[in-house]
Amino acid sequence: MAVPRILDSLRGAATEAGGALLGRLQHVRLPGLGQSSTTEDPETAARRWRAVTVLCSPEQVGTGADLPAPLAALGDRVELRITPAPGDRGTELAARYRDRPSDDDLRALRSALRESKQLIEVGEVLRVDPAPHGVRRPTPQGAALEGMTRRAGGEGVL
Amino acid sequence: MRAATWTGVNEVSVETVPDPQILNDHDVILRVRRTTTCGSDLHLLGGYIPFMRVGDVLGHEFMGEVVEVGRGVRERKVGDRVVVNSFIACGHCWYCRQELYSLCDNGNPNPGITESLWGQSPGGCFGYSHAMGGWAGSHAEYVRVPYADVGAFVVPEEVSDERALFASDAVSTGWMGADLAGTKPGDVVAVWGAGGVGQMAARAAMLLGAERVYVIDRLPERLAQVREHVGAETIDYSRTDVLAELREVTGGRGPDVCIEAVGMEAHSSGIQGAYDQVKQQLRLQTDRPSAVREAILACRKGGSVFVLGVFALMVDKFPLGALMNKGLTVRGAQVHGQRYMPRILEHMARGELTTEHLATHVMPLEEAPRGYRMFKDKTDGCVRSVFVP
Ligand SMILES: NC(=O)c1ccc[n+]([C@@H]2O[C@H](COP(=O)([O-])OP(=O)(O)OC[C@H]3O[C@@H](n4cnc5c(N)ncnc54)[C@H](O)[C@@H]3O)[C@@H](O)[C@H]2O)c1
Ligand SMILES: [Zn+2]
Ligand SMILES: [Zn+2]
Questions:
Q1: Domain A47-126 CATH class label
Q2: Which residues sit with Cβ closer than 5 angstroms to ligand 3, an ion?
Q3: Which residues of B are less than 8 Å from A135 in CB distance?
Q4: CB B342 within 8 Å of CB B153
Q5: C-alpha to C-alpha distances, B153 to B47, B88, B167, B174, B337, nearest whole angstrom
Q6: How high is the ipTM of this complex?
Q7: What is the residue-level pLDDT of chain A in tens, covering all 158 positions?
Q8: CATH superfamily to which B173-332 belongs
């Protein structure tokens, strides 16, 4: 394809790239990005099974008191579904609350699923803190990021 | 201990920070012997990956000596001289078992950020922001290495520190690009970018049997290194129409394999360059993809394009039509280094893979701010600044 033709069309778009376009694009939300669902009503979204695939047999996940501690700690509030994954991929470990969960509940469930997977696959939960760092000069962006990372083990689209 | 930290956009400082400790059974602590700047750091420093906190320790390409081992470590012991892959992988999850180590499910304890950006979270990386796990980097006297049995490789005696260092990231990344792009004997391979990564992609393509390899850049000292130390041919894109030149030297077909090793701050001239700069600065696109565009347009029908350069989120004017109608395979990845490092160290030991020339500027860790300035501005022929803590 002729590169000059591409450049021509770029030239048109470049002149458009002003503040108006910026304003418009800042409000674009991409479906599925940043949260597990942008289209479902919160009730339906909260009732979805949240699942991780663990490289082990279904028996190795355990049941009741033998479940990995982070999941066992959630007790009867969550129901579990443990099924073999297709092919050689291990076991699908899915969980959801029986009642309507809060955002904190969902965060706890995401962390519990991720930590259980690590306990089964590796035998321990990976820790990053305390990590060496220099002086944390306080900045608004830093504070926001600290909040974000402190919660990031319980966030995401899971 | 002393460490080089990020203290603001394009600002690096050296400060005293706490020593790392063993936190997991599979950890080791390394006394760092050599640690180097990488093109990926520039994207971080420049604020293009906005998940850095003031005080974060930089660095992900390094080697050193094991000084402490966790209870669960089986294969490494105190005193081992090792080179460590930049990505942190558990070795046990399904991705690790497929040798797709940078996709490890268990290498990033903060997967929420990247999951939200990309739909799934890849593994963690040393010194590469809180999005990639918040791991402290290697530009320090000591660094904690999680999953050490998986990510730390003993350096053969005959391989020097300067050579082994680059097995950590630049060589393993380049090798991965050439390998996963499917380079075969008889292929013509083009590589965009003559930094450490591009040069090593070119060298790997040659070792995998490519018949002819071209490396594209504009910096004369880097192109000279390619001719002298890698043994590939060069194209200066500031003087030559790259697409026309590649068509001419490939009998009109285009290269079989095109490897992009430039990344999100690609330079380009003319209207395309201005367009990308403006859009990136206005945050209308996060990344400048000019080398990827060119690679896709250059590639022969049915050929393969591998994106090694780091991209954060969105690009604009992506030639999807060329990709689709020419039947291309486009692939990318962060480095699956654990898969290639044993073989790379063997090639290094036999003298078939040399990297010392990349270390154009070796200096004490205290001079890291100067080292980064030179590496960023590409002054004094700087290809890589290497720090000795
Ligand atoms: N995939 C991975 O795991 C991985 C690992 C390491 C580095 N990287 C990425 O690889 C890229 C290169 O790393 P590096 O350390 O070699 O960086 P570098 O900054 O030293 O080299 C980049 C080179 O690209 C050249 N360049 C700029 N625009 C170009 C264009 N339009 N066409 C051709 N060349 C162009 C520059 O002149 C420079 O020589 C970076 O984006 C880095 O983030 C990826
Ligand atoms: Zn790197
Ligand atoms: Zn893994």
A1: alpha beta
A2: B 89-90, 93, 96, 104, 106
A3: 15, 54-55
A4: yes
A5: 32, 13, 10, 18, 11
A6: 0.92
A7: 333 343 333 333 333 333 333 233 333 344 444 455 556 777 787 888 999 999 999 999 998 889 999 999 999 999 999 999 999 999 999 999 999 888 889 889 999 999 999 999 999 999 999 999 999 988 777 777 787 777 777 887 78
A8: NAD(P)-binding Rossmann-like Domain (3.40.50.720)
